Amino acid sequence: MEKTMTKEELMELEQAEKTPFQKKMDLVISFLPVFCGLLALWEYLALPNVREDKELPLYFGFLVLLTGLYAVFLAVSFIKRKKGKKELFDRLRYWAPLFSFLFLLLTFYDVLTLKTGTLLYPFFPWVNDIFYVMVDDREYLLESAISTLKLLFCGYFSGAVLGLITGITCGYSKKVRYWVDPVLKILGPIPTSTWIPIVMVVAATLFRGSVFIIGLGVWFAVTTASMTGIANVDVAYFEAARTLGANERQLVFRVAIPHAVPNIIQGLVQGMSSACTALMIAEMIGVESGLGWYIIWAKSWAMYNKMYAAIIVICLIFTAVTRILNRIKNRVLRWQRGMVRQ
Known about the structure:
CATH class of the largest domain: Mainly Alpha
Largest sheet: none
Strand content: under 5%
Number of strands: 0
Helix content: over 70%
Number of domains: 2
CATH topology of the largest domain: MetI-like fold
Radius of gyration: 26 Å
Order of helices and strands: HHHHHHHHHHHHHH
Oligomer: single chain
Shape: flat
Structural class: mainly alpha
């Protein structure tokens, strides 16, 4: 068997194949976020405002912090690069275009709102106004975020546990699949939000109804993925395990589930996406707490700066949850990368 190359060796080979012009372009692109960050700072300080800004320049501090952190990491990457460690520089080079776009987007939006008033207030508040509201209303936002997380995880884990039980049972037993498969085919094409009016009337409380709506979407995703993973396990593995004396319980937990782990993990990740969507719909329609409710409340009072602040918090929460799930997925399925390299 030929010796496989590691990720670091592949990156070194790729770097060696670059021309001098490409290497110079890597340096320019790596410095680009610093330039764009300084441009955003200059725009905020130098251009006159058409509207009265808040006395607390939180946006300015955010730009300084973000630009400064990137500059520090870039300096450290150059020091490590001289010592032959290129991982940090390559990572910054990869993220540099995205960081540059972020700075330019903030600059462009600030010009259209605070500096020129092209985008009308209060429908489009400027960035510093949104940051100011996030700090000023932080207790209410934190309380709403906690309510959102509580509802999200109650619905997600309820649906995930039931989905694992249903999916594994259906995948292993054809008799159980005979009864459950028609239910999946009927409920699958129907969006979970369709059931909200019915559930909100039938459920004892709005919270329980929302948990059911969220769990329903997660249950379907996890059940389908788990059932597919179990059903696709090669029969030869079961026959070999039976030959070695394995009982039914061992066939499920030692053969079927381990081979179906990639499908199960994929179903759990997909279930979180469904849970986030159903969560926002449930909070905006029925639940009387949470960030979704906060958005509707702020919009009804034309406080769009608070609405945008809640949207930013939601994006941060969902991004963090998704990244954590992806890290768990990569950790659990790290053996797959080894097989791909072989």
